Amino acid sequence: DGSKEQDWIVTRKEMIRGGIAKEMIVVNGLFPGPTVHAKVGEKVMINVRNELPGNEGVSIHWHGINQRGSNTMDGAVGITQCAIPPGHNFTYVFTPDKAGTYWWHAHSGGQRVEGLLGGFIVYDSSQEKYTMGNGAYDDELLVIITDQYHDKFSEALARYTSKRSKGFEPVPDGGLINGHGKFNCSKLLTAKHRCIADADDLTEFILQPNKKYRIRIINASAFSDFKFSIDNHELEVIEADGAEVESKKTHYIPISSGQRYSAIIHTKQWDIGQFYIRAEMDDMNFNYLNLQLEPEVKAIITYDRNSIVYRITEFVKRETKRYKPNPSSKPWSELLQPEELVTIQESSLRPLEREEIPDADIQIVIYTKVMKLEKRNRAPFAFINRTSHIPAIGAPNLHVATNKINVSDIIPVPTITGGKNTEKWGGDQLLLDIPYGSVVDVIINNIDESSHPFHLHGYHFWVLHTFSPEKVNGQWYPDQKANYNVVNPIKRDTVNVPSFGHSVIRWKANNPGIWAFHCHMEWHMSTGMLMQFATAMENFTEEIPSAMIDHCIAERDLGPKLIK
Ligand code: C2O
Ligand code: CU
């Protein structure tokens, strides 16, 4: 359908979203950007042209796409490529290997927070579009949830990392579904932002009665976890991060930044009006109260083209041009007793098909924490073990590893901690070598108040164990190996590591390349909660595209200016 070969132009554009006027970063004028539809085994070619003003580079990461044999296309700035400079373009070429719900977003600065993101759906080549292991459905919808900050990302980040910072991550002001929402302008505390209450409306989905829909949910937020539900419609979860799961009925799906789920909903037999889709922010990680915050993000389901409701609303729309959908549905929590409410847990999901889980050869233990550092003006930095990631300018690690840049050409970047291998890689980096074929356990000990959704590029991993403690000390200790689920663990690409708890993930290192592993909350990633695995590099055979090398030379020329 042509969507596998696309030309994308990245620009800035003022938009009114949720009633607030804001400059967004858009693809072909759109936020969210275009949804990519592809089949397993089909080549995707996306030519990204950077038309941002000033010196701002850009890159696109294809979140959850394994990039088997195409590490160079992974889009991670400082790791696999330099940013595409303004006025330049780069064509990402890769072949998805697994059906499911994925997404794409900028992987440079905080550009995804400014809107540079979209959906990416992969269909099985052997199946019809509307089937999955769990059965057929009639149609599907895509729900992309974002949290929104009225301020610019750069301003919010500067405040968060300033001398006077209390170390509290910026709390969003609200959220959007598929780029639309409502903000109560009377909540605004300052006149800094322009708010036009009627300038935006909730996203509305028109559904037919008596049908089965697959609803694909992406948490594309900068920071927030959400609790997702649809009034009066039970959700039957069938997919998590591209993995088919044994179906489970639920009222609420908790979803962390970077994660995706699919659920089947059955529309009712009769037309009974309009219902809210709700994504409620989980405020567990919010360390301060944002008085402007609208924590419930909504969209609307309207039944159906033949229904009385639909015909009346269409009529009103035509006659008055002032149609506003107006559901009166209630959240599940107001309809059911607390003990009747079902909320799925990440750790209770099971794969539809079991796999043989190999034993681990390598065990890596990491600790994650956000801390304020005396020698850095008391600004908060995010750590993995004793490193806080800062990439080298103009010297992505993949280019260093493949001798496309000399170590002596790396522009030094002041580091905080002297990360492992720093002399070789530049910046402040924790980068571990994993030989081809090794089975790796990574034990993520979260010694923070905040939970951290960890995402691995290039692989899907089994989640063997997640521990969410009652009390503060939930660190891993060797006896817990006995509790690992090596029978039917779920395989995904983003795991939420609970506050003061831990998760154990396992994967087999058979995809040559350097892959990022990081917290998906932009505030934590931007302040250093990122490490890398150089896996199976002895089998690496890719050529670095020459355009990428040119982009890095351009970045090194700018380098001294950038770090001044
Ligand atoms: Cu969705 Cu490295 O990120
Ligand atoms: Cu985090």
From TrEMBL:
<dbReference type="InterPro" id="IPR011706">
    <property type="entry name" value="Cu-oxidase_C"/>
</dbReference>
<feature type="domain" description="Plastocyanin-like">
    <location>
        <begin position="141"/>
        <end position="304"/>
    </location>
</feature>
<dbReference type="InterPro" id="IPR045087">
    <property type="entry name" value="Cu-oxidase_fam"/>
</dbReference>
<feature type="domain" description="Plastocyanin-like">
    <location>
        <begin position="17"/>
        <end position="126"/>
    </location>
</feature>
<dbReference type="InterPro" id="IPR001117">
    <property type="entry name" value="Cu-oxidase_2nd"/>
</dbReference>
<dbReference type="InterPro" id="IPR033138">
    <property type="entry name" value="Cu_oxidase_CS"/>
</dbReference>
<dbReference type="Pfam" id="PF07731">
    <property type="entry name" value="Cu-oxidase_2"/>
</dbReference>
<keyword id="KW-0813">Transport</keyword>
<keyword id="KW-0186">Copper</keyword>
<keyword id="KW-0560">Oxidoreductase</keyword>
<keyword id="KW-0406">Ion transport</keyword>
<dbReference type="InterPro" id="IPR002355">
    <property type="entry name" value="Cu_oxidase_Cu_BS"/>
</dbReference>
<protein>
    <submittedName>
        <fullName>Piso0_003673 protein</fullName>
    </submittedName>
</protein>
<dbReference type="Pfam" id="PF07732">
    <property type="entry name" value="Cu-oxidase_3"/>
</dbReference>
<feature type="domain" description="Plastocyanin-like">
    <location>
        <begin position="417"/>
        <end position="536"/>
    </location>
</feature>
<dbReference type="Pfam" id="PF00394">
    <property type="entry name" value="Cu-oxidase"/>
</dbReference>
<dbReference type="InterPro" id="IPR008972">
    <property type="entry name" value="Cupredoxin"/>
</dbReference>
<keyword id="KW-0479">Metal-binding</keyword>
<dbReference type="InterPro" id="IPR011707">
    <property type="entry name" value="Cu-oxidase-like_N"/>
</dbReference>
<comment type="similarity">
    <text>Belongs to the multicopper oxidase family.</text>
</comment>
<keyword id="KW-0410">Iron transport</keyword>
<dbReference type="GO" id="GO:0006826">
    <property type="term" value="P:iron ion transport"/>
</dbReference>
<dbReference type="GO" id="GO:0005507">
    <property type="term" value="F:copper ion binding"/>
</dbReference>
<dbReference type="GO" id="GO:0016491">
    <property type="term" value="F:oxidoreductase activity"/>
</dbReference>
<keyword id="KW-0408">Iron</keyword>
